[in-house]
Amino acid sequence: MSGRRGAEDDAGAVFAALADPTRRAVLRDVAEAGPLTATELAGRLPVSRQAIAKHLAVLQQAGLVTPAKEGRENRFRATPARLTDVGAWLTDTGSAWDARLDRLGDRLRERRRNDTRTHGPGDGR
Amino acid sequence: MDSIERHVTLDADLDEAWELLTRPEDLAGWLGADVAFDPTPGSAGLVVDHDGTRRHLTVDRVEQGRSISWRWWTDGDEQAASRVEITLVPTSGGTRVHVVEAPLPAAPSGGAVRARASAGTAWSHRLLHLEALLLLAASVRG
User: Fold this and answer.
1) What distance in Å separates the CA atoms of residue A98 and residue A33, rounded to the nearest whole number?
2) pLDDT grade, residue B29 (50/70/90)?
3) For the whole model, what pTM was predicted?
4) Beta carbons of B103 and A2 less than 8 Å apart
């Protein structure tokens, strides 16, 4: 696994991992009922154990679940830090655009005031 | 792939809205405090926010008068780039400005992930992902 990177970077990997509905179901079950093994998950979801294991590997790579060795199987628990990072990215990016689009409207009004001085209002097309 | 999505309707025709989105002197009035920007595919630019945050960008796609898209990342954090796509749509009341920003997976672990991320998911799917994400965040926290 690579070291910690920025929240935005995490967001990209997390979104890619969550793009698959079955993976979302796996993560949801791990979050609600974990820690769980791939075998236990296969008993809860209409998916083969092999498919579950592949989905868990992708989720693990995105940092969304963490395995702990238990006998011959891994038991997975959800790791909320990445989701928090993604939530922070969504919140920060969204409010940055709210502010930018507010300023965009202001900028247009500023142009209008300058136009009015030279051309006068009601200059229809 | 998920994203944030915002829109605003400007009391301006398409040409004027396009100027606001692409002329450096207009961009400096809203995109950031200081903007170096050339609306040509492949060109590099810089946006300095009001709080001093510096974002480097590369213009990816320009459809004259219709849409523009770029990648940007904060100073020294090229791995954490995101893509911005701005589309203009004429409406009865003026021009609708539609913004989508989505993080780019930085170190793709496999071709499948990269292909999926660039495939452009339908809106309903994107919203579904967001919903799932928020539900999960809530369930994990609780």
Assistant:
1) 37
2) confident
3) 0.67
4) no
